[in-house]
Amino acid sequence: MIEIQKVSKRFNNNLVLHELSLNVQAGQTCVIIGRSGCGKSVLLKHIVGLLVPDSGKVLVQGKDVASLGELELAALRAKISMVFQGGALFDSMDVSDNVGFSLLEHTRMSKKEMCARVEESLALVGLGGIGNLLPSELSGGMRKRVALARAICIKPQIILYDEPTTGIDPISADNINELIRSLHDKLKVTSLVVTHDMKSAYRIADKIAMMYKGKIISEGTPEQIQQTRDPVVHQFINGLSKGPITEATDTFK
């Protein structure tokens, strides 16, 4: 479903992605772990065509994203949903309008059909009946779930998650993990999740890939990652203050 082939990206003198390669199979939930600022979100932006690689290719359903024309790129993006770190809800819109925004932009559904789809999506994340509330009236965990409802409302084939459990309490975070897992099972979507939350990674992943110095240095099932002998991966997943990651700088030229 997603194939990243030796992608490199530099911002000024900072090489963020360095010949990074990764494959995500259809229906798979792949979690990318790594320290804050290591380029995980930059990778997501390449997948949706917001950034173009300096070298290498990003293929989604076999199509080279960087080579697509405007209409082709729009058609591809209609198959992809993004769950942003902070939810990225529109403050001036109520929950229903936030969830149904993509339907208004990308479909010709009637108002009645859109309302039904919005309510269905909210019900799937356990928030039926709150469509008239504003984002400011919601808790952090509820805003995350509304963002999930918006992501699934267009019935995407791929969902990208950027730090879905950041900024919420452990119980709300576990609820989000459970939702990601259950939505994956119900909707049969392909999911790519970036996070540094190892509890979340173990809970939702079919495959975990560790990103370090612009590359994927290790990948495997949650069990394989937990049993790793790689010192970099071992330090990160166990949250150790001493090890190869902290002995060297994370920035490189």
**Strand and helix order:** EEEHEEHEHHHHEHEHEEHHH
Low-confidence stretches: none
Secondary structure: number of strands: 10
Secondary structure tally, helices? 11
CA(first)-CA(last) distance: 31 Å
Provide a short characterization of the protein structure.
The chain has 253 residues and is of the alpha/beta class. It has helices spanning 40-47, 70-77, 95-99, 101-106, 111-124, 140-153, 170-187, 198-204, 222-226, 231-237, 244-247; strands at residues 2-11, 14-24, 29-33, 55-60, 63-64, 80-83, 158-162, 190-195, 207-212, 215-220. Helices cover 38% and strands 24% of the residues.
How would you describe what is shown here?
By secondary structure, the chain is of the alpha/beta class. It is 38% helix and 24% strand. The chain contains 11 helices and 10 strands. The strands form 2 sheets. It has a 6-stranded mixed β-sheet with strand order 6-7-8-3-9-10, with helices on both faces. Strands 2-1-4-5 form a 4-stranded antiparallel β-sheet, covered by helices on one side. Helix 6 (140-153) runs parallel beside helix 7. The chain starts with a strand and ends in a 6-residue tail after the last helix. The relative contact order is 0.18. The mean pLDDT is 90.
